[in-house]
Amino acid sequence: MTSLRAESRLIALIVASAFFLQGLDSAIINTSLPQMAASLHVATLDMSIGITVYMLSAAAFVPMSGWLADRFGARDIFIASILTFTLASLVCGISQTLTQLIIARAIQGFGGALMTPVGRMVVLRNTEKNQLLHATALITWPALTAPVVGPVLGGFLTTYFSWRWNFLMNIPIGLMGIWLAWRFIPNAREATSNALDWRGLILSSTALSLTLFGLEAFAHDDLKNGMPMILTLTGLLAGYLAVRHFLKTTHPLLSLSSLNVQTYRICNLSAGAFFRVSSTTVPFLLPLLFQIGFGLNALAAGSWMLVYFAGNLGMKPVTSPILQRFGFRSTLLANGIITSLSIASCALLTPHSNTGVMVAILLLAGLTRSMQFTALNTLAFADVTAAQRSSGSTLASMLMQITSVLGVALGAFLLKITQTLDAHAHTALEDFQIAFIVTGAIVFLSTLLFLQLPRDAGAEVSGHRN
After folding, report:
1. The domain spanning residue 428 has which CATH number?
2. What pLDDT shows up at residue 1?
3. Domain match, 157 and 269 both
4. C-alpha to C-alpha distance for 83 and 174, rounded to whole angstroms
5. Could you tell me the pTM of the whole model?
6. φ and ψ at 380, to 5 degrees?
7. For a tag on the chain, would you pick the N or C end, based on fewer CB atoms within 10 A?
8. What are phi and psi of 162, to 5 degrees?
9. In angstroms, rounded to a whole number, what is the distance separating the alpha carbons of residues 262 and 259?
10. Under 8 Å CB-to-CB from 8, ≥6 apart: which residues?
11. CA distance 240 to 10
């Protein structure tokens, strides 16, 4: 396995920076909702639409990202996505009414919808196969760090400056990203003259939007009204119709041929999907554990999350050597088991736990999560052909959105069900303990699915030889 060429490394870093910008924006808004509500003269709960509209807009436009990149060039669409996101951030930062903010967030969601799949496409098209591991490691860190850094940074900016700076800080970063992308990323495009598959777009966008909205409702709404179930089932029905359409039409918006590749399928649809759901559940549960279970304030809880974040970053330098030494299959199996144990070990944490023990558990959970993410994201595209990259990247982004929302919904569901069964008036420490154990068990069971991988899976990418 050769080291990453300077050009490929620079491109991967540019894309990673854009990913971090997007991830940070998504994570940072949650800490500022009360202040935003007061400034815009609405109720705090009304501000939740600012999160929902972004999610729905992003879901609606993700399916067309591959077609746009093939038609107009991945670099140009990537730049357009950053520009759209940046301009919308400006409008968010100067919004004087909730309506203005909602419109700006919807436009921001459009930019974000294109940024992730097209950015990944840019990296895949400008990286040799034997350098893919290094490139994937670079573009994976934003997904691991932004959700942890976001709440801390958002709380700081909102407390000492204004909630508006949560959006306005995107402007210089976005402009720099646009210039770097224009300067250093070649505008390679796939030869295509196919018209846009409007039926496929409508079906897939409807499926993704309703499914995500329904899953989000499971986590936050009163389940007695049945609306979360109706939305989710309607979305799944639209998804079934979309899949049937993609399989039958001559030039589908989204080719599903990448699912025929075993490594892609396992990493995105079976074992990988279960892991991503569980790995999203943990960052959702931990801040609540520290605040509700331990009675800590938001700043103290955020400080403990930084330990978890340090674990995510700490694994980066050794990920490539470990994969080169042991290969993808052995690493995913062994690391998956350790990940499941580290998550279950969070059930041991109490307000009276030894500080060293808490640091060790959180660091281990962060280290193993980082390793598994990098290995999955790299192996997923190890055997995908050049012709499958556009649709494969788009499909992977769609699946990641679903698993991210599922992870939060799973965490909320576990807390609700244990609270109900134990007849607690409020969420108790015991509810968190059970949630961590169940989440760890899901990771363990999903890890067993990696036994389906051949021993030499991704050897050309990792450089591992039996």
Report:
1. 1.20.1250.20
2. 46
3. no
4. 7
5. 0.79
6. -55, -35
7. C
8. -160, 150
9. 7
10. 123, 126, 127, 128, 131, 135
11. 40
